């Protein structure tokens, strides 16, 4: 599903390329603190992903591959 990056209308989202995924949006809503354990996040970051909890506006549900 082609979608543009929020705030960047000329850039296709990493989600459109299957290089990003949102997990459990209900419990990790945009702008709210993460419910993930450090161990869970580390499982992804050690494999080259970034978690949106580190973004200026928390997006803890979001994991994207840094190689994208």
Q: Can you give a write-up of this model?
A:
It contains one helix and five strands, in the order βββαββ. It has 68 residues and is mostly beta strands. A three-stranded antiparallel sheet has the order 3-5-4, covered by helices on one side. A two-stranded antiparallel sheet has the order 1-2.
Main attributes?
68 residues, mainly beta, 3-stranded antiparallel β-sheet, two-stranded antiparallel sheet, 5 strands
Short description:
This protein is mostly beta strands and about 70 residues long.
Please describe the topology of this protein.
Blueprint: E1 4-5, E2 8-12, E3 20-22, H1 38-45, E4 49-52, E5 59-65
Antiparallel strand pairs: 1-2, 3-5, 4-5
Rg over C-alpha atoms, rounded to the nearest angstrom: 12 Å
SSE pattern? EEEHEE
Largest sheet: 3 strands, antiparallel
Please work out how many helical segments DSSP would assign.
1
| Sequence stretches where pLDDT stays below 50 over 5 or more residues | none
Mean pLDDT: 91
Q: What would you call the shape?
A: globular
The amount of beta strand, in percent, is 25-35%
How are the strands ordered across the major sheet?
Answer: 3-5-4
Question: What is the tally of beta strands?
Answer: 5
Distance between the termini: 17 Å
Structural class: mainly beta
Helix content: 10-25%
């Amino acid at each position: 599903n082609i979608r543009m990056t929020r705030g960047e209308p000329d850039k296709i989202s990493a989600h459109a390329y299957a290089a990003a995924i949102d997990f459990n949006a209900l419990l990790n809503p945009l702008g709210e603190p993460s419910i993930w354990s450090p161990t869970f996040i580390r499982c992804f970051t050690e494999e080259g992903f970034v978690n949106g909890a580190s973004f200026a506006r928390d997006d803890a549900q979001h994991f994207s591959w840094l190689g994208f």
